[in-house]
Design goal:
Blueprint lengths: L5 H9 L5 E4 L12 E4 L6 E5 L4 E4 L5 H6 L17
Parallel strand pairs: 1-2
Antiparallel strand pairs: 3-4
Amino acid sequence: MRAGSEAELAEMVAGALGPLVVRGGGTRAIGQVEGEVLETAGLVGISLYEPAALTLGVRAGTGLAEGGGGLGHGRGACGGGGRLRW
């Protein structure tokens, strides 16, 4: 299963008949590893950005490159030039 919106994701979770394996980018398994795969890769993008509060909200399938890529504005808010440091 692959969710394309938060509403679809909620329906899939509510209608699940057993355990779910939640997969974002698929880089590694975390938690439950048996069950139906629920992919969140379709849920991408920045949903909230408040540089003064050092707050960034991203959707479940957003990778680090995409989430950090939108922060190139303003110097110093996220460390040296407005870029995230991991």
